Amino acid sequence: MASSQALTTAPQRAFEAPETTSRPPATIGTFRSRLPQHLRSHLNSGREWVQQRAAAPLPPPFPTATALDQLLVGGLPQGQLVELVGHRSSGRFSTILASLATATSAGEAAALVDLGDAFDPQLAVAAGVDLERLLWARPGHLKQTLISAEVLIAGGFPLVVVDLGTPPVPGGRGVEASWLRLAKAAQSHQAALLVSSPYRVSGTAAAGVVKAGHGRALWSGAAPGPRLLVGLSSHLTLQKMRRQRGNRTETLHLQPPAALIYGTPTTSIEGKSRP
Amino acid sequence: MPRIACLFTPLFPLAARLRSEPELRGEAVAIFQGNSNAARVVAAARRARQVGIRPGMSLTQARALLPNLIVRARDMPCEKATQETLLEIAESFSPRVEDVGEGVAYLELDGLDRHFPGDSPEQDLGHALTVTTDKAGLTTWVGIASSKLAARVAAKLPASPNLVPAGEEASFLAPLPLRSLAAEVEIIETLERWGIRSVGDFARLPKNEVASRLGETGRQLHEKARGLDPRPLVPYQPPPHFAEGMELEWPLVNLEPFLFVAGAALKRLCQRLESRGLACARLETSLRLEPDGHHQRTLQLPAPTREAKTLLTLIRLDLEAESPTAPVTGFTIVAHPDRPREAQLSLFGPPALSPDKLATTLARLFALLGSERVGSPRTVNGHRPERSALVEYAPPPPPDVRPERQAGRGLLAIRTLRPPVPLEVISHLSCPREILSIISEGSAKRPRIQGRVKVASGPWAMEEEWWTEKTVERDYWDIELVDGGIFRIFYQRSTGEWYADGIYD
Prior knowledge:
heterodimer, A: alpha/beta, Rossmann fold, B: MutS, DNA mismatch repair protein, domain I, DNA polymerase, domain 1, Dna Ligase, domain 1, 4 domains, six-stranded antiparallel beta barrel, five-stranded mixed beta sheet, 20 strands, elongated
């Protein structure tokens, strides 16, 4: 009887949709359950992989001893590219100098790729930079800058700071693929990479973007009398950071170096005397 | 009598060629010497020998036997590098090595049995020598005996390594023909006229009679025939540098094919340096040009390295900057060795940079930017803000314990403008009121600074080297523009010109 039923139902089923489509799709759990016990943990779906990566503990950040530490929760994240954007006199250069000082004074090696050739060793010493541990590379073009940074990251430098100077940047913004490649290099070598630029250059390659606002100069003295630059106040705003809340702002207070180059102020050009 | 090992490379010209062109292994290859009709085969690979190609044949005869025969000219730079490699391998086993040339080297084995504590230390040593030469791309046979002649004869036998037990050298050599003692000695002919055909026959003659009739040369040959070899090994003096080279089959015009063969040579060079625990401090590239020119380049590396990829990049960048003027027919790459930098890892302090990696990094940056644009910054005595100095980057070892990070000093840094940007300044009572950067040729790449001055602070006098003719006299101002931006500008008294040399940032 059973065999006759099967014979009669077979032609009907031939005109139906294939059996595989009517069956519910096999989940990753189904596949995993069919694997031997010791292999199950190796089979993951894409979603699980992303979740695992997100849940993995991050390496400790690289402190900079500036307002960046508050914005980036501890400092520059290792293995990621952070872009610091700001106009002239926004405190951008002071911030990167402070991060170099923090790293080198702790015995770490650091590298500065200085496209604008703006680094002043005398000022850096005053800021606390250990010059012996700092590698200073002075490229002349953005392409050289990117290659230099990649070479330095591959060379094992734990902190690489790229300063693109002031506009016009030789080479413009560069190709986004180059920035992605640089970010990938930082990730694979677990290097902290800080890019300081007058405008956004790295696109989606940046894990974090901090914008330095227009700086406000602080002057001592009243208008008709002699004035003295006593500081600069600016704001750093976190525009983007993976796994963090954006749009947070911290104030940056900076003081000029005391008597770094100047002697006694004179009241007029002719009033100066020789030492 | 000391025990002596002989390293013998069969078909040495072919072995040297296959070392530089490993893709030819297993092919029907023949090495020839001479030009046009005088070209003769000196060595042939197994597949070529199987069809009857033998040393001494003309190239035409060899091609008639095997039309698809791959022929290569005998390459002296290649053979020299191969011989040096063989000697370096021998030196890695024993400090007493003799260079015989043509793929043969002797090494003294006294004291080496302590490194091979097995049942048959000499057998193990022979295997170790064979394995090491195999790794270097050479097929070498090993013979061990108490005399050079016996060791060499044993090395030429199949089933390497071959050992001749101590004291049995005479019986080992006895069946050999007399010519194996020395190929071109008149004494051999004399002995053959006496009816002596083998080494054993000669060894049986009385020692004093041989000396009285055949003189000193005869006495030495008689000792060799009896398995005695009192002469010590002639010490091998290794060259102060490592060289690899090649004669190219046809002249190369493009850089890429040259870099392909040069890369393989550099890889071999770096392997040799690594086996000696050395690195390359200076690299010399000598190109032979068609028809008889030379192109010599020298690269001084910032730190010793033995990374072939880096060295190849440096050669490429150098040759792109200074291209040879004619097609390249051959090349020799010489590496001047030095000790690589070494570092001690710390348990608690920050990690140190790997010396090898640092050397590679510096070499790449030097090639990319130039030596004057990479280094460690230093302060310079003086007052001009644009002053700076650069020294070789050699960071001190990191501290044993990671120090506390210092809190930020909140220093307002000044972005130095090198060279200073020339300005046009409208001033009132010597105080700047409005500034504008002067547009000139090349100023398109410089920052544009212009605007009305909101606050000006100064002048701050600076004078440097007033006792010399290069006096620098400047009056500095800190200014803030209405549109934003705080600048450091100065008035140059000697020329009456204004410049901006820094941005407070």
